[in-house]
Amino acid sequence: DAGVTQSPTHLIKTRGQHVTLRCSPISGHKSVSWYQQVLGQGPQFIFQYYEKEERGRGNFPDRFSARQFPNYSSELNVNALLLGDSALYLCASSLGSFSGANVLTFGAGSRLTVL
Amino acid sequence: AQKVTQAQTEISVVEKEDVTLDCVYETRDTTYYLFWYKQPPSGELVFLIRRNSFDEQNEISGRYSWNFQKSTSSFNFTITASQVVDSAVYFCALSEARGDDKIIFGKGTRLHILP
Questions:
Q1: How far apart are CA B68 and CA B66, in angstroms?
Q2: Chain A contact set for B45 (CB, 8 A)
Q3: How many angstroms separate the CA of residue B82 from the nearest CA in chain A?
Q4: In sequence order, what are the beta bridge partners of A105?
Q5: Residues B80, B63: contact at Cβ < 8 Å?
Q6: Which residue does chain B place closest to A6, by CA atoms?
Q7: Which of B23, B100, B103 to substitute to test the interface with A, most A CBs within 10 Å?
Q8: Which residues are bridge partners to B74 per DSSP?
Q9: What share of chain A is helix, strand, coil (3-state, %, to 5)?
Q10: What is the DSSP letter of A18?
Q11: pLDDT tens digits for B45-86?
Q12: What is the rounded distance in angstroms from the CA atom of residue B2 to the CA atom of residue B47?
């Protein structure tokens, strides 16, 4: 079975541009979460989507947005890129139970460099 | 406020030595979940263990063992007879039972196993 797949794996943008990152969850998983991992730090929660609805949002500006499609894949969009947005963006999927005990399966990430 | 502290930024040991990675957490909730994830150079976070706040039994899985102590808010991870393949960044993480997949990660401990 395929794991969580993310695209693109690497990309370079300039300040002010827009970026779209894509994620396909494990088959059968209805929840997708996005995390940002800055170099040398742990991942930080950005969003969670479950059944196309936003279930959780981290402390990120409105330049960050996401959506989930009927096939449970997801996109993360970041507008007006800043240098500080350079990071590894990780997507994770889960069954999406409400307990908080979900084991997240992570993809290999999309490494974004903003120049 | 919830927080996870991994005081050891980087550890180097010689192969076959035992090594313990420390994790201290803060939460006001009585129901929560603790995790350890491994991040090899490929970038993908790999799930190792999940523990709920009501289960303080220590766990052993092969060369890996975990010691959970609520009295000291610690959830330490020991690798016995370390191997070069154990070299990675290890993250301790906390999830509060809020109904979403928000996980709070520590900053990670980079472990080098020297041959």
A1: 6
A2: 43, 90, 92, 104, 106
A3: 23
A4: A93
A5: yes
A6: B44
A7: B100
A8: B24, B69
A9: 5, 50, 50
A10: -
A11: 999 999 999 988 888 899 999 999 999 999 999 999 999 999
A12: 21
Q: How many beta-carbon pairs below 8 A join chains A and B?
A: 80
* Tokens describing residue A8: 């693109």
Residue B91: both structure tokens together:
């993250």
Letter for the amino acid at A64?
A: F
One-letter amino acid at A69 equals F
Amino acid identity of residue A42, one-letter, is G
Query: What is the tens place of the pLDDT at every residue in A7-30?
Result: 999 999 999 999 999 999 999 999
pLDDT digits (tens, 9 = 90+) for B28-41: 999 999 999 999 98
Closest CA to B53 of B77, B78, B28: B28
Question: At which residue do the structure tokens 């794996």 appear?
Answer: A9
**Tell me, what amino acid is at A56?**
G
Kindly list the residues of chain A whose beta carbon comes within 8 Å of any beta carbon in chain B: 3, 31, 33, 40-45, 48, 55-56, 58, 88, 90, 92, 94, 96, 98-109, 111
